[in-house]
Amino acid sequence: MFKVGDYIVYGGEGVCRVETIGPVPVTSMDQSKVYYTLSPLYHTGVIYAPTDANLPMRPVLTREEARALIKSIPDMPMAPELPSDPKRVAAEYKTYLQTYDCAKLLRLIRMIYTKRAQAAALGRGFGQTDDRYFKRAKELLYGELALSLGIPMHTVEDTIAREIEENAG
Fold first, then answer.
1. Would strands 7-10 and 47-50 be described as parallel, antiparallel, or unpaired?
2. N or C: which end of the chain has fewer CB within 10 A?
C-alpha cells in the first residue's frame, strides 16, 4: 500500500502524487471503500483509485533505477520487425504502451524512432499512428524519468543522449 506523499505511476495517467487515502467526497462512489486520491504530476485533475483494485499502479523508479535504465539503452535488443498491416502495428504499439513498464516504453520509442528514420531515408512521411504512440510513450517515460532524476521533463531526452555518449566514450 502506498502512503500519502508517495509518487506513483498510475497506468495511462503517468506519474501521480498520493494526496489522501480514505473515502472520497463523491456520493456516487462506494463510500465503504478506501481510495487513493491522486494528483497527476504533469496535468490537472483528480483521480480516485480504489486501494483494493487490481489497477496498474507502481512506485516510480528510484534515481538509481532510472540511471541504470538509461545506461542499459545501448545494450537493449532491437525491436522486432513490425507487421505491415497498420491495424496490427497499432495493436503492437498498444501492447507495449499498456505495460507501463519503462524498459518496454523505451523499446517502443526506439522501435518508432527507427521506423521514422527509415521512412525519412526513403523520403516517406511519418504516420499519425506512429506519431501518436511515439509522443505518448515519451510522455509516460520522460515524466517518470524527470521525477526520478530530479530534472525538468523537457531536458530528459538531452540527458539520456548525454549519458549514453559519456558511457560510450
1. unpaired
2. C
Give me the percent of the chain exceeding a pLDDT of 70.
Answer: 97
* CA geometry: angle 14, 66, 70, nearest 5 deg: 110
Instruction: Give CA–CA dist 30/7, Å, rounded.
Output: 25
Show the cell assigned to 24: 472520497
Q: How far is CA 5 from CA 26, 37, 57, in A?
A: 22, 11, 15
More confident: 165 or 68: 68
CA-to-CA distance for 69 and 61, rounded, in angstroms?
Answer: 9
pLDDT in tens, 70-90: 999 888 877 667 777 888 889
CB-count exposure of residue 100 (10 Å: 0-12, 13-18, 19+):
buried
DSSP designation for 122? T
Q: Which residues contact 1 (CB under 8 A, 6 or more apart)?
A: 21, 51
For the full predicted model, state whether its pTM sits above 0.85. Answer: yes
Q: Check if the beta carbon of residue 59 is closer than 8 Å to that of residue 6.
A: yes
Q: Is there a contact between 82 and 115 (Cβ–Cβ < 8 Å)?
A: yes
Alpha carbon 55 to chain centroid, angstroms: 15
Percent of the chain whose pLDDT exceeds 90: 56
33 phi and psi angles, rounded to 5 deg:
-90, 155
